[in-house]
C-alpha cells in the first residue's frame, strides 16, 4: 500500500471565474484533468478531493477521485489559508483510511497543463534530495534584480532587489522563478509542523512556462483552452 496521499483542494466560491473548478474546458470539467493526471501517475492509492461543494464532489467522484467529507465553512472562505486546508485533508484522510501517510502531494486543480511526468519526476527529485517539502515554478519573466520594481511609501521607485554593481542584462542577474501553483509535496512532519511554505530543506522543481499557467481569470481560462486545443491538433 502506498504511503503517499494525494489531495486536490477545490472550493465552490470562485470569484475570478464562476464555478471555475467544474467549468468545461476543452470539453471536460477543469478539475477532471488534475484527477486523471494523479491517477495516471500511479503514485497514490487514494486521490482525495477537499471541497465544500456538492457539485464539485459529484464531478470529482465521476472522474475517479474520492470525496468522503465536506470542507468546513471556516476553511472555505477567501481568507482561509491553503496550508490549513491541506493539513485538514491529511488528518481527515488518515482517520478515514486508518493509516499514517509518510508523504503528502497536493495538486492544484487550476493548473491543468502539467504532465503526469511532472508529478512523478518532482516526487522522485523530492525523495532523492531528502527535502522537507517541494514547490514547483517556472523561470521568471521578470527579474527582481533587473526589471521588477517596487514603489515605497514616499513614491520612490526602485528595483525589488539590489546587487553590488549594476546588472545591464537580465541574463547576468541571479536566476529567479515564478511559483506556478501546480505541485506541492511534503513529508508528513513538515506539513504538520513547518509554519511556512519555505524552510531550510524546501526543494524546487522547475517546469516550462507552457505547463505552468495557473487559471485565475477568464483570460487565463481562454488561453489555457487555446493551448489545449493547439496540443490536440498537433
UniProtKB/TrEMBL annotation:
Keywords: Cell projection, Cilium, Flagellum. The keyword Zinc-finger does not apply. It comes from the Bacteria. InterPro entries: CMP-NeuNAc_synthase (IPR050793), Cytidylyl_trans (IPR003329), Nucleotide-diphossugar_trans (IPR029044). The keyword Ribosomal protein does not apply. Transmembrane segments: none annotated. GO terms for molecular function: N-acylneuraminate cytidylyltransferase activity. This is Post-translational flagellin modification protein B. It comes from Thiomicrospira aerophila AL3.
Amino acid at each position: 500500500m502506498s504511503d503517499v496521499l494525494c489531495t486536490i483542494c477545490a472550493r465552490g466560491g470562485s470569484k475570478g471565474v464562476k464555478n471555475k473548478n467544474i467549468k468545461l474546458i476543452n470539453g471536460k470539467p477543469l478539475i477532471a484533468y488534475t484527477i486523471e493526471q494523479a491517477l495516471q501517475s500511479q503514485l497514490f492509492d487514494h486521490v482525495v478531493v477537499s471541497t465544500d461543494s456538492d457539485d464539485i464532489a459529484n464531478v470529482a467522484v465521476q472522474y475517479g477521485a474520492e470525496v468522503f467529507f465536506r470542507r468546513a465553512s471556516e476553511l472555505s472562505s477567501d481568507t482561509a489559508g491553503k496550508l490549513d486546508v491541506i493539513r485538514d485533508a491529511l488528518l481527515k484522510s488518515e482517520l478515514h483510511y486508518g493509516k499514517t501517510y509518510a508523504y503528502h502531494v497536493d495538486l492544484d486543480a487550476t493548473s491543468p497543463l502539467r504532465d503526469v511526468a511532472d508529478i512523478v519526476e518532482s516526487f522522485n527529485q523530492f525523495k532523492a534530495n531528502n527535502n522537507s517539502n517541494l514547490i514547483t515554478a517556472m523561470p521568471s519573466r521578470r527579474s527582481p534584480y533587473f526589471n521588477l520594481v517596487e514603489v515605497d511609501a514616499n513614491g520612490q521607485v526602485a528595483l525589488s532587489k539590489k546587487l553590488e554593481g549594476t546588472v545591464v542584462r537580465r541574463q547576468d542577474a541571479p536566476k529567479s522563478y515564478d511559483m506556478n501553483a501546480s505541485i506541492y509535496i511534503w513529508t508528513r512532519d513538515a506539513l504538520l509542523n513547518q509554519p511556512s511554505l519555505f524552510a531550510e530543506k524546501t526543494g524546487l522543481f522547475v517546469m516550462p512556462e507552457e505547463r505552468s499557467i495557473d487559471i485565475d481569470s477568464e483570460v487565463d481560462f481562454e488561453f489555457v483552452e487555446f493551448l489545449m486545443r493547439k496540443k490536440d491538433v498537433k
